[in-house]
Design goal:
Length: about 300
């Protein structure tokens, strides 16, 4: 038995038959296994339910919750609502850490052991992940999803329980996995995606690709930036960073289109106080760089 503190994993999923066995195999092979793994089937119509039933029968640490199918897939909001449905069944006080894990990733065997050891050594680390990669279908090469070090990856996050409580849980909206990072830092916690080989995980479905297409996913990202209250110069910088990934030009343009469409529609945004904090952080990042901005904000902790 590991001497490390226990953690609980919560995995929302929907129609993940093609991926979930890869994810389950990598979780069950962890050197520090979850004390409880709650998998929430959000109304799957493929073979997901059958596979999950088999895992639950074989492993007493796996709990499966089945939700009725929604009228249509709701990215962001639907994921968080499924996560919350799983969280409601958990006595969080029994766990030092809470993990949110997608069912389309493959983790290295020491993923959670490494993260928890790191967090035990650094008490201010509250919201962390490794780095995500995906396989390019044309070349077979692993491609970095390019997440800045001062943000954790939504597909495989781990929260310190106190940090999760401080931010009031997850926001059920698009860009929830950016909001929680800003909220964590605002509450005095450090946020990281750690570029270590033992924390490098494979995303079987590229981040931001949406369930429809990469272009739709990029537009959703732009819409999410508006929701955060990002300024137009910051959106342009964010779009420019995406030119490393195909579709090079169309993907960058789609981010700007998504932002402008949300702005013209006057869609909802995060509360004014958090929006002001986010803008200060983003503007300083444009002036002095993300690493120095992260260090300056963390020094206030």
């Amino acid at each position: 038995m590991s001497s490390l503190p226990p953690y609980v994993l919560i995995s929302p999923c929907r129609d993940e038959e093609a991926y979930l066995e890869h994810t389950a195999t990598s979780v069950l092979a962890q050197t520090h296994a979850p004390a409880l793994w709650v998998i929430v089937d959000d109304g799957s119509t493929d073979g997901t339910a059958r596979l999950l039933e088999g895992y639950a029968r074989a492993h007493d640490t796996i709990r499966v919750i089945t939700l009725p199918r929604r009228a249509e897939r709701s990215l962001g909001k639907g994921v968080v609502q499924a996560f919350e449905a799983g969280l409601e069944t958990v006595d969080t006080g029994a766990y030092a850490y809470i993990g949110k894990l997608d069912m389309d990733v493959v983790l290295p065997p020491g993923y959670y052991e490494t993260l928890i050891r790191l967090m035990e050594e650094r008490p201010l680390l509250g919201n962390v992940s490794g780095k995500a990669y995906f396989v390019d279908d044309r070349t077979g090469r692993e491609i970095d999803e390019v997440v800045a070090d001062d943000f954790s990856v939504g597909a495989a996050k781990l929260y310190r329980r106190r940090c999760f409580a401080d931010i009031g849980g997850l926001s059920d909206c698009v860009m929830w996995d950016g909001i929680d990072c800003y909220a964590s830092r605002r509450c005095g916690w450090w946020v990281r995606s750690v570029p270590a080989e033992e924390l490098r995980f494979l995303h079987l479905r590229p981040m931001g690709s949406s369930h429809q297409s990469i272009i739709v996913g990029r537009k959703r990202h732009g819409r999410g930036l508006y929701h955060l209250g990002s300024s137009f110069p910051f959106v342009l910088a964010a779009a420019a960073r995406r030119v490393k990934h195909p579709p090079v030009v169309r993907g960058a343009v789609a981010i700007v289109q998504g932002y402008l469409k949300a702005r013209l529609a006057r869609e909802g945004q995060v509360p004014a106080d958090l929006r002001s904090y986010i803008r200060r952080y983003q503007h300083l990042s444009l002036v002095i760089g993300k690493r120095r901005t992260m260090q300056r904000f963390e020094a206030r902790s």
